[in-house]
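Supplementary Note 3. Input sequence used for the single-chain structure prediction.
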Amino acid sequence: MEIPFNITLLMVMTVICGISAQVLAAYLKVPAIVFLLLFGILAGPDCFGVLHPNLLGSGLEVMVSLCVALILFEGGLNLELRDLGKLSGSIRNLVTVGTLITLIGGGMAAHWLGEFPWPIAFLYASLVVVTGPTVIGPLLKQVSVDKQVAALLEAEGVLIDPVGAILAVLVLNIILNGNPDLLVLFRDLIVRLFVGTAIGVAGGWLLGFILKRSQFLSEDLKNLVVLAGLWGFFGLAEEIRSESGLLATVLSGIVLRAAAVPEERLLRRFKGQLTVLAISMLFVLLAADLSLASVVALGWGSLFTVLALMWVVRPINVWLCTWNSGLNWRQKLFVCWVAPRGIVSASIASLFAILLTQRGINGGDSIKALVFLTIIMTVFVQGLTAGRIAQLLGITSKSATGAAIVGSNPLSRLIARLFQERGESVAIIDTDPEACAQAEREGLRVFLSSALDHSVLEEAGLDSMGTFLAMTNNGEVNLVLAQRAAEEFAPPRVLAIFPKDPQANTPANPTKINQAFVSDLSLKDWNEYLSDGEVKLGETELKTEGLQFQIAHLQALVQAGELAPLLLERQGYLQVVSATQIWQAGDQIIYLLYDPTPKLLKRLSGSSQSRLTLEKHQVVEEVPIPSPVLEPVLEEAKIEKEAEVLLPPVSR
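The predicted structure, written as discrete structure tokens, is reproduced below.
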């Protein structure tokens, strides 16, 4: 009973370590794999000795195989094919030509710098051609980058894993069998690709057919049917031809996504949760199974081998494979920098080390140690610096420009014009023909359709825009539209006008959807103000001196119903003001100021304007300067003011 209990304790401690690493990474906003590796090494036999993966024996290999199949299926299920249109050539090159470049370059580096024999050097290179979704996916969730770059990295990570696994098996066969016939190797490659493709495509179609037709199954049971199915396809492919199962799982996920089953979102959420658990367990176990002494014994040559792979081979690979991709040099440079290795490299390296040792071939443990050194260095160096590099290169998703606005009304058209005058792409979507015609007369790009239509949002360019704003007259509809846009397109900023009612329905992930402008904005009133010409358009800059007093002054105008903040320009980027916005010194606030001057008096004074222009208004700019007596009071209230939400304007 002692051995089963030890295995039980091992699994319990593995889950605790893995989830603890995930929680800590989420709190510190760094890639989770950093702490997964760290916790695994610390809990392993070489440090605190809490985890002993050798107790699992061959069971570790079984766990790795099933979990990797699940992870790759989830990667295929989340792969957005529509995002790959312009990048399909680059992805094809990275998976084919790029694999060959990494194999040759990595082998040369391992031989000349690491002093490995040529066969072992190329075996190492075949193991590190992959950049798995186990690392890329969580990394891109922490580091929000340009959508094209994210799509390229995700697609490369998902598609290159099975190709790399098949390549590694071929190289291993060459080492174990001496000098086999190249024609036989090529035939084995084609057979593995054919088996994996056939079973993956057929399996994905079958799962889609079952999910659409089996209405008697509950949602939870359908999720488990998919889980059983993907493992079944994986096992069938492996039984027919080893190392073809990974390709089958990837393609089955892609085909199932294309089938557009009704329960797709719930299915992706369920598989995402299982994937997080699988990644957490696998990285901790494999890191704990690593011998630190074998890594140290590699010497400086192996360190230089990994650096050459990161900073010489990878840039050559990316620049050649993305030559005509349309990506700019900043995007290419980021793709060059980010290529962390993941669970597929670690799992296959662990398996190969055992096989080489059983055959009496030296180098198995060294290969495993070098692969883990590559994983550790790429994860720590690239994972911890990816966010900073993206900011320096200016390719974060927060820097995305343009806006898609749902609802054609006077206020939305004014906001669209302000974006357009800054040279940003704008699209207005509405179902009212008359409202759309008015927007067209004002020179705006308009789509007469429902914003629930995925193809319309795609045609409007939401996949590359920085802002989605729902501002129809129905607050509940705005919430639904914003939630749909956040889930399907994930733009950096999703805002909507909706009532702040605690009894109202809230979106599934409210952190992604912000209340536009101010709480409970009376859209009807401000549209009437605009239509009647009872507003002025203004711009003011928040200054460092007396900042809190200036913000308090603006809030007083908002509370009095005299001012509605619309847009905020910060660090050169224009964005819609949200109700929870924390204003900072240097912000440029564009606002509407209620001007109830009688229309006749305006016409007599000649101040009436057919087109609003940005101006400085005295009532906003004249901010009383706080006296020294009030400064301590203002400083004491600073924290409260930062958390305050702007109050709604008074309805007319």
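Residues 502-511, 644-652 have pLDDT under 50 and may be disordered. The radius of gyration is 29 Å.
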